[in-house]
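Question thread 4412

I'm putting together a teaching handout and wanted feedback from people who do this every day. The idea is simple: show students a protein as raw sequence, then show them the structure tokens that encode its fold, then repeat with a second protein so they can compare. Below is the first pair exactly as I plan to print it.
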Amino acid sequence: KEGIVKRTSLKEFALIRQTGKYAITMKENDELLDVKLTDGNTLICISADNGKMVKFNEQDVRVMGRTAAGVRGISLEENERAVGLNTSLEGKYILSITEHGYGKKTPLEEYRLTQRGAKGVTTINMTDKTGKLVTTRAVDGDEDVMVVTKAGIIIRTSLNEVNVVGRNTQGVKIIRINDKEAVASIAVVKAEEVEENLPTEAENDLNEGEKQDNKE
């Protein structure tokens, strides 16, 4: 969460014991944010709660052993934290969600390629109304997003209903929450298939009744 990133060969994780193996050595008070599988030529995107995101080629990070501490992926101030790790293998849009329920989709190509360790560019225009950036996800744009609040309230909506807009915009309201609440997390899932033209339970009962009347 302090913006450190590292790259390790998958071979290093063969024959993992029941007690596990170290994947990274972290500084005190730091936490592991996320892990992604890459192919050697993937674009890496790291976003922070300050509304910025950096995009760089994974080859900017040399391959290291499991116990290595890593290198700087995004430059952060003391009170800032990384909140999202995304790759170009996961989708063509970046979905941004703020703590007050605002969200948007922005084409990945709108983020200029930089070197790792940069401060990044704006991924969402944060205001008092939107709150801080909670997380980002790489998406194709036709999935569903499930948004969970700190009070345990969850909604599910189609990403087709979320506008595609530029980086320096605040997005639209995805979930309505009161002033004392905030978005805790999101999950991107396969779009829910709604079967059309199927009879409802009431229609089934009516059809059964008509069949019985015909028999009598």
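The second pair follows. I'd like the answer to focus on this one:
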Amino acid sequence: DRYLPPKAAGSASGASGASSASSASGASSQKQPEQPFDLAALRGLRANGALHIGSLKANNLKASNVRMDVKANGGRLDVNPLTANFYQGTLSSAIAINAAPAVPTFAAKHNMTGVNVGAFLKDLANNDTLEGKGNVTADVTTQGSTVTALKKALNGNAAIKLADGSVKGIDIAGSIRSAKAKLGALRGEQTQAVDKNQKTDFSELTATFNIKNGIARNNDLSLKSPLLRVGGEGEINLGEDTLNYLVKAAIVGTSKGQGGREADELKGVTVPVRVTGPLAAPTYKLDFSAMATDSAKQAVTDALQKRFGGGAAAGDAAKKDGGQPGGSTRDKLRGLFGR
């Protein structure tokens, strides 16, 4: 990192000093504009070679046994292949940069296999919301002269498949278990902030993303555990570092120490969970009123099935009962509800 340009002044202690001076003078502090990076040096570069690195740390990311083949000519730089041992797994990438136009363009294909995603995200973005081990793929293009511009112009696709991990910040199963006692009194949504001490464990997590103009959309989120099934859809705004997701969680089984009888009574009930806000600290809204409605529907369905003994049997019984299935069913419903 010492070969990279120095960071702009005004961060860390410089920023606090400027802020103090601004407060003393009564002027409002303003965020410094993002400085564009300069790739002009690539336009005159001609190169063809290979680079092997035993141990590498760059921008806090760590890798070992790094190999990259490099070609540069006419403002275009190709790094292909780029391979490494990467966060307990492997990385295989191809990167292309074209600095010839006024606005440089970028293309990247990444295939991470068996990586520790939690450690990777911590080092990459100081983000501690996901842990697990698995595969991550991405095939993206973008253009721009600042990091923000690159994020807003990102297009392509990505996918993730993790095993034996957790989503930190919320215990979905615990929230559903505690909801049973609130169904009689609570109507509407309950908002919960992120609690880093809570987490939702999973045996498998999969999702694919379609990225357009910096917004990653997903409609096949799937999280599985012995206790839960979670599906969802939504979007991540990479340019603004925010997300907006609707997740639907349902208890599908019981596990000793993780719900017992209460979880069994809520088996099959689906709870919508709205996840919104900044990526670093989103807000979770659990819609307990929708859960109560779903629970009531399930209770009626169960009662009807017990009363009529199944659709085919009910239909046959109705035919024997005067040949008027509609009237027979109506009479039974009246008896069920006492009317």
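Top answer:
Good format. For the second protein you could add a caption like this: The first strand starts at residue 47 and ends at 58. The two ends are 79 Å apart (CA to CA).
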